[in-house]
């Protein structure tokens, strides 16, 4: 259980960063230092994330965070499930329907990431090992799993959970931490539910590994850009 005490000074440190800095410093970290974040810091992040907006303020996010032995146990279960080919996603997560710029960006992201960690396009085994790092939470000392109740097709609730996740991620950055959202963890929703005793009625959208980033190790400086806003936005007058 997380400790309710707030660490003095945290709030001052956060206030020193501008919104612009926080948004631009956030990235999906895939290399971490082993040191866990203090419980008070995690609790402060959770207090921020809890401020996320949601449809009719229903606040549908059901959040499970693993650290220490629980983290190691879940990671072992995920690797075992993967080795046994036991995928139990709650939603279809394929990329088959991507087209045009969406597909191009997805391919570009994969290529840039693998290049940053020195894995060649044709090195299938190395790519697989890199993919498995998802299930080791990229070495992060904490992982968060985002579950939600299931209403209709889930779209409305998924939007709310996305709001929660981004607030959580930005707060991590504001606290000097980073996280990596991971749909790959959602492929093992059933395993995670089983390990943590979660109600089968709750569905998992994705997970977030988090901790203090290790920017000095291989791939630690990998960052990806964005399309110009004209590709996504139309300003009507
Ligand atoms: C909902 C969601 C799921 C993601 N799933 C994964 C994942 O399974 N594995 C991974 O390495 N990165 C994953 N990412 C990270 C994206 O690749 C990353 O956000 C994108 O490339 C932009 O990079 P940035 O977050 O560093 O700015 C995910 C991101 C989001 C928002």
TrEMBL record:
Recorded source organism is Rhizorhabdus histidinilytica
Keyword Oxidoreductase belongs to the record: yes
> What protein name does the entry list?
Nitroreductase
Residue ranges annotated for the Nitroreductase domain, each copy included = 23-212
Gene3D superfamilies listed in its UniProt record:
NADH Oxidase
Keywords in alphabetical order: Flavoprotein, FMN, Oxidoreductase
- Taxonomy of the source species: Bacteria, Pseudomonadati, Pseudomonadota, Alphaproteobacteria, Sphingomonadales
Domain of life of the native organism? Bacteria
Give a yes or no for keyword Oxidoreductase in this entry. yes
Q: Name one Pfam family in it.
A: Nitroreductase
The protein's GO terms of the molecular function aspect are: oxidoreductase activity
């Amino acid at each position: 259980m997380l400790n309710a005490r707030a660490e003095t000074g945290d709030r001052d440190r956060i206030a020193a960063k501008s919104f612009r800095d926080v948004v631009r410093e956030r990235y999906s970290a895939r290399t971490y230092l082993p040191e866990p974040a203090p419980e008070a810091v995690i609790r402060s992040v959770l207090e921020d994330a809890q401020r996320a907006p949601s449809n009719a303020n229903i606040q549908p996010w059901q959040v499970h965070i693993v650290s220490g032995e629980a983290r190691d146990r879940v990671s072992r279960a995920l690797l075992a499930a993967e080795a046994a080919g036991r995928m139990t996603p709650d939603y279809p997560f394929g990329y088959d329907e991507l087209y045009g710029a969406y597909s191009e960006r997805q391919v570009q992201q994969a290529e840039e990431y693998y290049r940053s960690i020195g894995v060649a396009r044709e090195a299938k085994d190395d790519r697989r090992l890199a993919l498995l790092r998802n299930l080791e939470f990229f070495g992060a000392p904490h992982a968060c799993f985002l579950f939600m109740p299931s209403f209709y097709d889930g779209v409305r609730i998924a939007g709310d959970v996305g709001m929660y996740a981004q607030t959580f991620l930005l707060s991590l950055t504001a606290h000097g931490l980073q996280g990596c959202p991971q749909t790959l963890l959602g492929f093992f929703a059933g395993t995670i539910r089983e390990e943590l005793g979660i109600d089968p009625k709750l569905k998992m959208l994705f997970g977030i590994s988090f901790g203090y980033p290790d920017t000095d190790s291989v791939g630690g400086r990998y960052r990806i850009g964005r399309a110009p806003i004209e590709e996504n936005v139309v300003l009507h007058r």
